[in-house]
C-alpha cells in the first residue's frame, strides 16, 4: 500500500497506543516512545514492522506513542492508521486475515 496522507489511530490512554503514519519518499522511518521501552522496545518495533510488511507498506514515517498496549492492540492501531492514510477506510475494507 502507498501512504498518501497522514493517518492516525489510537489514544493516549493507559494500555493503548497512538500511531501516526505519514508519507515518506523511501524506506521506513520508525519512531517509538513507550512507557515500557526498556522491557519491550524490541518487540514493539518488531510488531510494527511486521504489520507494515503484511500490509505491503514499503515507505512511510511511522510514530508510535505506546502506553502499555498489548501486541494485538498495537497491530490493530498500525493497520487502522495505514488504512486511513491511503483512503482504504473510506471504501470497503477486507477484514479477512491477510
Would you mind describing this structure in some detail?
The protein has a four-stranded mixed sheet, covered by helices on one side. The longest helix has 18 residues, at 37-54. The mean pLDDT is 92. The chain has two helices and four strands, in the order βββαβα. 34% of the residues lie in helices and 23% in strands. It starts with 6 loop residues before the first strand and ends in a 13-residue tail after the last helix. It is an alpha+beta fold. The radius of gyration is 12 Å and the shape is globular. Helix 1 (37-54) packs across helix 2.
The spatial strand order of the largest sheet comes to 1-2-4-3
**Amount of beta strand:** 15-25%
- Structural class designation: alpha+beta
- Give the SSE order as H and E letters: EEEHEH
Counted by DSSP, the helix tally is 2
N-to-C terminal Cα separation, in Å? 13 Å
Count of extended strands: 4
Question: Tell me about the biggest sheet?
Answer: 4 strands, mixed
Q: Roughly how much helix do the residues carry, as a percent range? A: 25-40%
Mean pLDDT: 92
> Using only CA atoms, what is the Rg?
12 Å
Give the overall silhouette. Answer: globular
pLDDT under 50 segments (min length 5)? none
Amino acid at each position: 500500500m502507498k501512504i498518501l496522507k497522514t493517518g492516525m489511530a489510537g489514544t493516549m490512554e493507559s494500555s493503548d497506543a497512538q500511531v501516526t503514519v505519514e508519507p515518506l519518499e523511501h524506506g521506513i522511518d520508525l519512531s517509538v516512545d513507550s512507557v515500557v521501552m526498556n522491557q519491550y522496545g524490541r518487540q514493539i518495533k518488531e510488531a510494527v514492522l511486521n504489520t507494515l510488511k503484511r500490509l505491503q507498506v514499503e515507505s512511510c514515517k511511522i510514530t508510535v506513542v505506546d502506553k502499555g498496549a498489548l501486541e494485538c492492540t498495537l497491530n490493530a492501531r498500525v493497520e487502522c492508521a495505514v488504512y486511513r492514510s491511503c483512503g482504504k477506510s473510506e471504501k470497503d475494507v477486507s477484514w479477512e486475515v491477510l
